[in-house]
Amino acid sequence: MDxxxxxxxxxxxxxxxxxxxxxxxxxxxxxxLGRARAGRPVKSLIAIGLRGTGKTVLLQRIxxxxxxxxxxxxxIEAHDGARFAEIVIPHLRRLxxxxxxxxxxxxxxxxxxxxxxxxxxxxxxxxxxxxxELGVGAETGSADSGNLEADLGDLLLAVGRAAAARQxxxxxxxxxxQMLGQRDLSALIMALHRCAQYAVPVILVAVGLPQTMNMxxxxxxxxxRMFEFPAVGALNRTDTNQALTVPTGRQGVSWSDAALERxxxxxxxxxxxxxxxxxxxxxxxxxxxxxxxDVDKARAAAIMQLDENFFRVRFGRLTPKERDYVRAMxxxxxxxxxxxxxxxxxxxxxxxLSSYRSRLIDKGMIYSPEHGDTAFSVPLFDRFMKRIMPDWxxxxxxx
Length: 399
Ligand SMILES: Nc1ncnc2c1ncn2[C@@H]1O[C@H](COP(=O)(O)OP(=O)(O)O)[C@@H](O)[C@H]1O
Ligand SMILES: [Mg+2]
What we know:
The chain is α/β, with parallel strands linked by helices and 399 residues long.
């Protein structure tokens, strides 16, 4: 069918034509945003899921919701090697300047700007034009210790008070939150804790990989009280059908039951894969119904695209030894697997593999759902590993 009319959109962070299976999560966010605006205690949200499950698009929707709700929002993508202090400053600066323009001179807003300035000096961050633009002096003794845990609390509190003075709220939206690392994430948790104590309208909605759960460190007990950790996973059968049939239905195209069944078996309901299967099935279909033959014809192209765009980048970042480890895991199936079982298959002792395992965790390739267990952060990665290293046998990788 006409590729130009194809409604499916495989691709990171691209809004799907239909977003089934996420109503509960969106409701949770709606309620949290509403309550925070009203100065009520709320739990911030950190939604957890594997790659390609739709976390980024969900966060974008929540941001739109917050915007509509009258919030001032910061959408932050955490990344490797960047300190949170550095990433967050331009965002908070923008917010404070927005607050400043919202009405007559306001002491809370001015103070917010002063605290931001001292925060920057605490971290020896100077953006030449930025301090001039702020038009205020720093507030000595606030947020300028250079210790993120203390300073971020001062800063968020000051920004929250400025927001309250303008009858608005601040929504921090953080994508790839696991990239903050344990130290910065803990500092953020403690900062939000202070905001909650003073009931200022600052709320965090974050999304990240499952390893986020192991990163709350010392602040774990706070995190458990202050956050909800809803899961973003594969869609169930009904939602999977909806993700496929609603977008094509708008163009008068349906799916046969057998075709839907086939996509379900191939994709296990993982959102990214559904878009890929939908996209290629549409392209090969010719009538007003997508048939199981179409799906069968489309499969090779869908898998090739997935391998190219989704799996291979992650695979490319692994050393031969790490590949060996991951391939051994794949041999055991989708997982999770005991580390001891992986070691046994490879014919070595667990300790001999522990450094590879931790590096794979650092790279976001695998995570530990429970002590001694190992699972893939990318859905269906076991099948990919078997495709890309078909002739593997234990001990076949040298080095
Ligand atoms: N509920 C859903 N139903 C169908 N497709 C979805 C859904 N959520 C996300 N997608 C699609 O899945 C793909 C990956 O989404 P993305 O938000 O980038 O995932 P993540 O951030 O978890 O890696 C995109 O093509 C997106 O359109
Ligand atoms: Mg994402």
